[in-house]
Amino acid sequence: MTRRLTREQAYRVFVLLSVTRWLPVGLVVGIVILLQTDRGLSIAEALTAAAISGYVCFTLELPTSGFADAFGRRPSISRRRGSTWSSASRTSSPTRSGSSRRRPP
Questions:
Q1: Which residues have a Cβ under 8 Å from the Cβ of 100 and sit 6 or more positions away?
Q2: For residue 40, which phi and psi values (nearest 5 degrees)?
């Protein structure tokens, strides 16, 4: 049975989780900015490069995850409902025993 946390205990847990989440990010960002300014970029240029890098990673994650869902090894929820990207992803695939059986649409 779990016991309820007091307000002080909950605050300590919150602070601990916040520190363990954001301390490594702060250390890495600080070191990366120092390296980039040492190589000749201004702080504004270094932060702009970091922001652009973050946006590019975010925008490329969505199509690649959709591609992996459509053509991956395991069928995803969208494939089970019949909305696939191509008919090639609906073809039969060999099972472990070597026989071939058709996946449900």
A1: 92, 93, 94
A2: 115, -5
